[in-house]
Inverse folding.
């Protein structure tokens, strides 16, 4: 009988340890910690030689091979009332999480496209914008978004957030769009192409391009549901 009990304890303990290791290995922060130096070196080399196509390819490969299907760390940010919000527990639907800073040059048409999609699909997807700024700057920037978009901010000067949270900003840069399913898995991350690297576009063309890019990402969150299937055509 003792042998059976000890065996059961050993099995449960081993399973618990294995589960903890598996979860740790599946976290976004762990993947970044393990792989970011190699990726950053190659990406910096590409951008230093103005090989933007190579830099874009390296980013896509890194996301698809290392980050996709890993779990977002359960981090906290503040809402515009100053209350801490836990991303993983507060949002129950799939999430598009876009990271900005107030000094970012946001492409014309990007925010209107996001607002329109939030208005149409907020019942299926939570639309969240995270500013790396203080409360005053975040509130000022929030005026650009409609009430279907949740605005959060992280002020690093407060020095109260864990290192894995900072990976959202410092590891891959910004602005970025994280597409996260209802189980907190990162399905995809898309980097916005700097406006200076794009050909000049009309407002309509910029709006259409941003709208369609967001639709692509949002459809990755609706694999088991109904696709949006509302691509726009520019004039």
């Amino acid at each position: 009988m003792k042998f059976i009990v000890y065996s059961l304890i050993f099995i449960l303990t081993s399973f618990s340890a294995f589960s903890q290791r598996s979860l740790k290995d599946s976290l976004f922060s762990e993947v970044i910690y393990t792989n970011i130096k190699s990726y950053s070196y190659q990406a910096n080399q590409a951008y230093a030689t103005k090989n933007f196509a190579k830099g874009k390819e390296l980013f896509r490969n890194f996301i698809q091979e290392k980050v996709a299907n890993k779990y977002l760390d359960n981090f906290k940010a503040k809402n515009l009332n100053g209350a801490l919000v836990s991303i993983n527990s507060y949002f129950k639907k799939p999430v598009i999480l876009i990271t900005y800073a107030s000094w970012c040059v946001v492409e014309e048409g990007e925010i209107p496209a996001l607002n329109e999609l939030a208005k149409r699909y907020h019942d299926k997807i939570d639309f969240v914008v995270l500013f790396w700024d203080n409360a005053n700057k975040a509130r000022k920037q929030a005026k650009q978004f409609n009430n279907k978009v949740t605005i959060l901010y992280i002020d690093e000067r407060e020095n109260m957030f864990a290192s894995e949270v900072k990976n959202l900003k410092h590891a891959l840069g910004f602005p970025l769009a994280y597409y996260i399913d209802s189980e907190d898995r990162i399905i995809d991350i898309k980097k916005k192409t700097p406006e200076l690297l794009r050909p000049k576009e009309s407002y309509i063309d910029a709006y259409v391009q941003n709208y369609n890019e967001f639709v692509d990402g949002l459809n990755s969150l609706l694999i088991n549901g109904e696709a949006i299937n509302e691509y726009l055509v520019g004039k």
User: Anything to note?
Assistant: Helices lie at 2-25, 28-48, 52-67, 87-90, 110-121, 135-142, 163-170, 203-220. Residues 129 and 151 are 5 Å apart (CA to CA). DSSP finds eight helices and eight strands in the chain.
